[in-house]
Amino acid sequence: MSTDKTILKRNKIKKRIRKVVFGSNERPRLSVYRSNKEIYAQIINDVNKKTIVSASSKDKELKIKSNNKIEISKIVGNSIGKKALELGIISVSFDRNGYLYHGRVKSLAEGAREAGLKF
After folding, report:
1. CA-to-CA distance for 19 and 75, rounded, in angstroms?
2. How many CB atoms lie within 10 A of CB 111?
3. How crowded is residue 79: how many other Cβ atoms within 10 Å of its Cβ?
């Protein structure tokens, strides 16, 4: 039953964040989703309702050898940052999707910043 409470709490936080964070043409939204095993990141243009770039820990081209989920998150963040810069996206709005800015979400953000994204 506690998982129902945590899901409801996360959805409440998510709604509060999404009131402020919006992806435009000039500054798209970097959305993060984490499951128990994997982590996913998307850069989304909310005006056109299109996903511009995505990266996840399941991507074959990343060739992840580590079992540490925080290191994997940093690699995924670095990957999405590089893909975004190739498309000319420099600045994004960070949408943590109701998760705390801690652990895997924080390491993904740091990896994206290291690649050159600004947020």
Report:
1. 29
2. 24
3. 24
The answer as to CATH 3.20.20.140 being correct for domain 2-115 is no
Residue with tokens 């996903």: 51
pLDDT at 1 over 60: no
Short-list 81, 94, 86, 99, CA closest to 36: 99
Kindly report which listed range (18-22, 51-55, 93-97) carries the lowest average pLDDT score: 18-22
| Region 78-100 average pLDDT | 95
Residues 53/84, Cβ–Cβ less than 8 Å? yes
CA distance 34 to 18: 17
pTM of the full structure: 0.89
29-79 per-position pLDDT tens digit: 999 999 999 999 999 999 999 999 999 999 999 888 889 999 999 999 999
Which is nearest to 41 in space by CA: 63, 58, 22?
Answer: 58
Token code pair at residue 65:
């050898």
